[in-house]
Amino acid sequence: MPLDPDLEGFLELAEMGRLSGKSQPMHALSVNQARQEFELSSQILDPSPPASLTITTLHIPTRDGAKIEARLYRSAHHVQPSQPSILYFHGGGYVVGSLDSHDSICRRLALSGRQAVLAPAYRLAPEHPFPTAVNDALDCANWLAREAHTLNLDPDNVSVAGDSAGATLATVLAISAVQAPEHLALKPKTQLLFYPVADTQRTRPSHLRYAEGYLLESETLQWFYRHYTPDVEQRGDWRTSPLLANNLGPLAPAYVSLAEYDPLYDEGLEYAQLLRDTGTDVTLLTQRGLTHDFLRMSGISADIGGIYAAVEGWLEVHTA
């Protein structure tokens, strides 16, 4: 399917900015510059997210004594007792991204009131390379399992979710819940995986097909990986490359949503097939005409509202 016409226009403007020298690809920037540019992009991609929510700032302790900020999103109009929730990890290649950059996603996921959304600000590389993000994700999940009742959340009805690198953190929790339950008190009800990073070791045809010009660039992926896993052997760890996980059995039901025009597309398909082959209930969708990061694009494409509605409908069935 051709690119979404509104998204295509946005990408053409971005390319004009690059050709004129007004902008550069992320991998040509310093880490601080890249973070600033990524934050600014949120104001363009989704400038008017829903406002009618209650947002509470929390602080979650980690195993090394640090505390990381988190936000709990709830509909201002409908909060049932012992509410189901989504533990959501933002994308950004483990290097960029924040609670602010993905605020609109969390708002839209929580808007119906059927579930709350807890979004932690796990620590980023290169200041905090692998496995800090993984450990932070595990610590946040265990904290949620302990504190759910005090937050009026149901500890037995938590979906783990994320986009891009955040989706990879969600896969780590879903796998750990089955393979290492002694390290994870939370048992995910479902997993929501949006354009996940599934293999940091190998390149695939989609990395070449969509290497440039489709928002996320293949060279930027390698820039992320160099910061997060400076030791290349770490890229063979299943916690960075879940396609390499061994002895997988059935996991929590998975909703896997991929972008057609994305360097990560092929590995996302492979990971969905791996889950199916090991007995996991998988719903796989390809969002035609869209690129990586589509969840943040409600201000660009009219199709994004339908994507959120489909997620909501799936959750209603699978978390009932």
UniProtKB/TrEMBL annotation:
The active site is at residue 164. InterPro entries: AB_hydrolase_3, AB_hydrolase_fold, GDXG_lipolytic_enzyme, Lipase_GDXG_HIS_AS, Lipase_GDXG_put_SER_AS. GO terms for molecular function: hydrolase activity. Residues 86-295 form the Alpha/beta hydrolase fold-3 domain. Keywords: Hydrolase. The keyword DNA-binding does not apply. Belongs to the 'GDXG' lipolytic enzyme family. This is Alpha/beta hydrolase fold domain-containing protein. It comes from Pseudomonas proteolytica. The lineage of its organism: Bacteria, Pseudomonadati, Pseudomonadota, Gammaproteobacteria, Pseudomonadales.
